[in-house]
Amino acid sequence: MAHNRPQHILELSSEQQRRFLDSFDHVYSDIDGVVYSMETNVPNGSQAYKALESAGKQITFVTNNSVRTVNGTVKRLGQANLQVQPHQIWHPAQTLVYYLQSIKFDGLIYTMASPQFKTVLRNAGYQLIDGPNHFIEDTYEDLLLHIFDKQPVKAVVIDLDFNMTATKLLRAQFYLRQPDCLFLIGATDRLLPIGKGIKLIGPGNFASILVEASGKEATVMGKPGRVLGDMLNRKHNVSDPSRVLMIGDMLAQDVHFGQLCGFQTLLVLSGGCTLDQLHAETCPQHLPNYYADSVADFIQLFANVATKAHF
Ligand SMILES: [Mg+2]
């Protein structure tokens, strides 16, 4: 898709605003940085989703965050005044189960992930191991004892793990030496924005270490993975991806994901990306079609189009 510089949705002409609102049936929306950031709700965000819903748009929340359970996310969205059904929420652990089932995977999985992520896999019947959770003495003997084991691991999974350690990565590296061991990545976020100007090292950076060390192609379950896009489109019977609008606050995850899948993309500046960062972006795959200060701009957009319709 040829890309011009992204346009602010409220700076489009009235005709373009109307055409934009008519141009999609499905909304795939990120959550963190779009609906809320940590404990702070994006002002008027819920009204924007309600306006989209009233206009007949089907809304699905697509997050890279598997640390919060689906029910936990439904509850948190409720606190942001949004009543959402569990089936409207997708995170990488669910995509992973879908993927493993689709390839009829049967084997032991080594996981570096949160307890919530592992629970989703266990509930789907998969057998997991993790660790080591052992403090290594400063000797190679002790290190090797804890990273080198002979368990028949057939897949290594990495997502956000608050207890990530070098020894876990080293153990994963050993498993990945086996040619038939799959390498599966959940969230790809290299940095996790957790507040104004504060970004933590994200799972994507740890995954990159393993990509480099193993020389293996990884399959990505979260955004911007194609597996996720295919799964969502199948689930929602999307035959024309250009009639999907992907809304998100991250260029490398949300916008890139949307572009890979042929969706329209809208960046909101309420989360992990500033206007200066958007202007400085040079990678064509990371440039959205549109941007907005926040999802709340949809309220004004619908009002503009409604007013215009009276003339
Ligand atoms: Mg986000």
TrEMBL record:
<comment type="similarity">
    <text>Belongs to the HAD-like hydrolase superfamily.</text>
</comment>
<protein>
    <submittedName>
        <fullName>GH12276</fullName>
    </submittedName>
</protein>
<dbReference type="InterPro" id="IPR036412">
    <property type="entry name" value="HAD-like_sf"/>
</dbReference>
<dbReference type="GO" id="GO:0120557">
    <property type="term" value="F:farnesyl diphosphatase activity"/>
</dbReference>
<dbReference type="GO" id="GO:0016791">
    <property type="term" value="F:phosphatase activity"/>
</dbReference>
<dbReference type="Pfam" id="PF13242">
    <property type="entry name" value="Hydrolase_like"/>
</dbReference>
<dbReference type="InterPro" id="IPR006357">
    <property type="entry name" value="HAD-SF_hydro_IIA"/>
</dbReference>
<dbReference type="GO" id="GO:0005737">
    <property type="term" value="C:cytoplasm"/>
</dbReference>
<feature type="active site" description="Proton donor">
    <location>
        <position position="32"/>
    </location>
</feature>
<keyword id="KW-0479">Metal-binding</keyword>
<dbReference type="InterPro" id="IPR023214">
    <property type="entry name" value="HAD_sf"/>
</dbReference>
<keyword id="KW-0460">Magnesium</keyword>
<keyword id="KW-0378">Hydrolase</keyword>
<feature type="binding site">
    <location>
        <position position="32"/>
    </location>
    <ligand>
        <name>Mg(2+)</name>
    </ligand>
</feature>
<dbReference type="GO" id="GO:0046872">
    <property type="term" value="F:metal ion binding"/>
</dbReference>
<feature type="active site" description="Nucleophile">
    <location>
        <position position="30"/>
    </location>
</feature>
<dbReference type="Pfam" id="PF13344">
    <property type="entry name" value="Hydrolase_6"/>
</dbReference>
<feature type="binding site">
    <location>
        <position position="249"/>
    </location>
    <ligand>
        <name>Mg(2+)</name>
    </ligand>
</feature>
<feature type="binding site">
    <location>
        <position position="223"/>
    </location>
    <ligand>
        <name>substrate</name>
    </ligand>
</feature>
<feature type="binding site">
    <location>
        <position position="30"/>
    </location>
    <ligand>
        <name>Mg(2+)</name>
    </ligand>
</feature>
